[in-house]
Structures are given as C-alpha cells and as structure tokens.
Amino acid sequence: MFWKYTLFESKLALKNRKNWVIALFFLTIFTLLFMYTSREDDPESLYDEKVEEAKEMRATYHYMDELRFDDEDVAEVYDLITEEASLINFQKFYLGQGDDPEGYIENGLELNKLRLQVHELGNAGMPGHLIVPVDEILREDALLKYIQENDLPLESESFLTGYYFEKAFKAISGMLFFLVVLIAGSEMLTFEQRHESIFNGFPIPFMQKVASKVLIQFIYISILLFAGFYIGITYLKDKLELFDTDFPILIYSNGYYEAVSISQYAMYMLFAFLLIIIITLLGAVLCNMIFKNAFATILAGLGVFIIPYLMMLAGWKVPILSSIIYLDFFNVLAGEASMNLQYTSIDYIHGYIWLTGVIILLIGVIYAFHKGSYYKRREKGTKHAA
Length: 386
Hints:
It is a single chain. This protein is 74% helix and 3% strand. The protein is elongated, with a radius of gyration of 27 Å. The chain is built from 17 helices and 2 strands. The longest helix has 38 residues, at 348-385. It has a two-stranded antiparallel sheet. The chain is mainly alpha-helical. It has 2 domains: 2-41 and 158-385, no CATH class; 46-152, no CATH class.
C-alpha cells in the first residue's frame, strides 16, 4: 500500500503547477548566477594584489620609521616589516619577469611566518588599517601549501572557476534555498486535508504517509538541484570555457583553514543541501500539523529561520538558537559562522552532525505530536459516546 500511495502522490506532484515553478527555479538558478558573475569584474590578479601589498608595506615602514628609535618592540617589528617588503617585491618579480611560481610560493610561505611573528609582538607601532588579520594569513598559507603540494599553476583558469562556484553557492545558500524548499513542501498535508475524499482509498499509517510525501518531494527537489548544477557547469565549460576543478577553495575546519579541490567543495555543499531539504520538508510537515495552513507554514518557517539571526544581531547568542546558522552552509564552510559566533567548533563536520540530529529530532516530534493528537481525538470520541 505504501508504494501505491507513493505512486499516486507522485502523479499528483507532477501535475502541481507550483512544482513546475520550483523546477524552473532549480534548473536555471546556477546558470543565471554564473551569467551574472560573468558580467561583473573578474577578481584582482595575483600580480595586482602584490602591487597593492607593496604600497601598503611602504606606507607602513615610513609610518614606523621615527617610532622605532623610541621603542624596542617597534624596532623589532620594523625589521620584520622590512623583510616582508623585500619578499613581496620578490613575489612581484616571480609573477612577472622572473616567471618562477615555486619562488613565489616559497616567499609567500616565509612572508606569512613573518606576519605571524609581527602579531606575536602585538603589531607594535603598526597603524590598525595596515595590519593583516591572522585569519587572512592562515587562509593564504593553506592555499599556498595546497598549490605547492599539488604542483598547480598560479595563473590558472581554475582560480576563476573557484571564484564562480563560491559566488553561486553564496547566493543560493541560506534564506533563498530554505524558502524555495519550504514553499515546495508547504502544503504536503493541507492538500490532502482539502481533498480528503480522494485519499480515502489509501488506509496507511500516518508516519508512512509522511515518509511517502517527504520522499517524493526530496527526490524531486534533489534531481532538479543536481540537474540545475549540471546545466550551470555546462554553461561554465561551453560558454565561458572555465571548468578546471583542481584549483583549491578554502574551507574552515576545527579552528583552521584547509584547502580542498573545487569538486570536493561542491560535493560538501550539495550534500549539505540534501540534508537541509529533508529538514525543511519535515519542518513543513510539523507546521502543517500545527497550523493546518500552507501560508501559515511558510510564515512559521521563515520565523524559525530569521528570528535567531535577529537575536544574534542584537547580541543575544543563545547556543541552541544560534545553531540555526548551520542552515546557511556556505558561511559554515567559509568560516564566517565561526567568526561571527566565536565558536571554533562550528565547521562542516559538526554541521553535518547537527543537521542529521535535527532530522532525527523532527521525526520524533512529528511522531509524538501525531500520537498526542490521536489520543486527544480518542478521548473526545469516548466522552461523546458516553
């Protein structure tokens, strides 16, 4: 009976016009985002970045030139800054006339060591706006080490590919993805309640009914998500001639940054999306049970998503409510969630564990709520019969 019911539900889902709008969204979103990104200015080249860094170095040691005679710590920092300036100038040479990628990487790793030493000295004498944050130093260090270990070219099309991927996932992750999936599942139970006579021929347990509805929507949305992603990367490959997945993208893990290939990064994001789809659909089922209205389900879902963010902006960092940030998985991988909440444990591994835990919790709550409603109805029926 379960599979007969699922087949019947599938046919209804395919005839639902709302689902065709959802399909259009997922099939086109990645391509549209890649097209939009292609019309923006390309990211600054490594050489241009080093030119800017060299200017900042000159401004820094000119500012510190007089201060170093009055303070030993400032004098020590000044010496390190001078070494940094030399390394940056060598990096410019290696990217230009020198054409020595290995030399660029070695100097870059040495430069990062010096910058961390400057932080250990408290950045004595340095103007605040010219201090390179530790987070930025660690990110660049992880990137250079990955390039060195995998013998990748510095000026690679894959660098631009990674830029496109990050921009696209940043745009779709979080509120947008959650809202679209919530709309897709907003009337899983209310539709049946409005057309009860159609479904009377399928006497199956409630939890099996929920499993069937969630399974259908999950498969439908997942297929559309992967199809849209495939169409998007086909556009990158054919129209923009960009599809080299070897170059790294940085992700945050347990207080540190690690570099992973573009394909691995996409796999992490898509797997998180699959878990978020299940959570959102189960949440929609629970809201349907409580409010018995599709519009109320959408408003309640948005409230659950938005209110914790507003509380965090107001400075109220409640751990349980703050965990909602895992639904915006781009920020988890980028390390922004960890920095905003100042919890080093907020990374992709803990994100997967949290998302899986919420799925189990929602299933338990739906079951408990159904059982509670069932006993209440039975008690009312007993009273009326008496």
